[in-house]
Amino acid sequence: MRDPDAVWFRLPPGYVDLDLDALEPLRDGLLADWATLCADPDRAARAARESRALFGVLEQLRDRGVLHTAIGLHAGDGTREGGAPGREARDEARVSVFSLSEVETGAPSSAAAAARCALDLATAGLGDVWESGLVELPCGTPAALVTSLLPGRPDGVDGPVPRAFQARLAIARPRGSRVVVADLTTAHPAEAAAYTDILLAVGGTVRFTDPEGPAEPDTAPARSRLLDVLL
């Protein structure tokens, strides 16, 4: 029998699943490792502050409950001038946080659920919205993307910390009023386009039926015009 709560997806290389009940030792280990990952002490200190900010996001996720969480570590697109030979890519390490949650919208259909969730994401007042619009995913259900620049500094983070960039992808389940929301957050807004592409790539792997199981008839709902009006 098909599990109505199941969702399948794949993360790209560089992401490691997180146990939100064991954040403290992971945070302490990563903060200690920045001294060896970065040749420049100033860069190591800045990376540590950025990591603390992202771990603040993780603590908030733990408090509200999520389906899945992962942390990513990747090399940046640029290189730092003046660094020791062979050190440039390591000095440009980027940390990001991925989470998957679910929202009950109370909407009468999956198309209306996606519209309502997307509107809530775009008008939640959690930052400056950069982009909002419809996206088409292989799973065939209504979906919308919202990107924004988050304000301020998480509680408990000292020192100057760049505003975090967050991309959010709302994907309606094939039936009912629930919406799966995939979030990707990083303290590197300059890499916003790259992280948006990563999130859309993950969204492209989302399935609500077992990808290795027997195929089911196509029952994806028609796209709601309400989505076009709202976004």
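Second entry:
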Amino acid sequence: MRQLALALLVSAVTAAVYGPIALLWWRRARVRSRTLRLVAAVEPEPYHMALLRHEATEAAAAELVLGGYLRIDEEGAAFLTGQGRDPARAPAHPMPAALLEAVRRHDPEPVSLGWIDWCDDGYLERRGAYRSERDALLPKLPRMPDGTGNQLLACCSCVGIVLVMFFWVLASVLW
């Protein structure tokens, strides 16, 4: 009878310890699947994806080079071409247009795209405005439960794990 009672007690403590852990795992799996559904439904614009990877200036420069607005020499300095100097011509997208405007402010001197990316206030302002505008279109992701808000549950889990280990040791000794 003593062994049966001990086995039932061990099983009850095991269920009490692993039950909340399983519920937390189940909640996290639900939040993760909901987050994946939200992210899968989003179709970001290419320049927004480049902004998220910190490659927007390079992508805009590539479009300007392909469009004939810029020429980049072997040292990485950007020069305006004849089309790039024409104020009536500008790319339709705001990111290449902002980069072209930044290069025009430095014309006729060559300018580094890295310097524009880090130091040109007008370009940084327009890039930040574009990013905040595009980020506002992204869905709000649900918060993943982390368990830091419930210290009592964490403490009870530790005590429960110690109890389970103690009961299994006791059951093996009494068996």
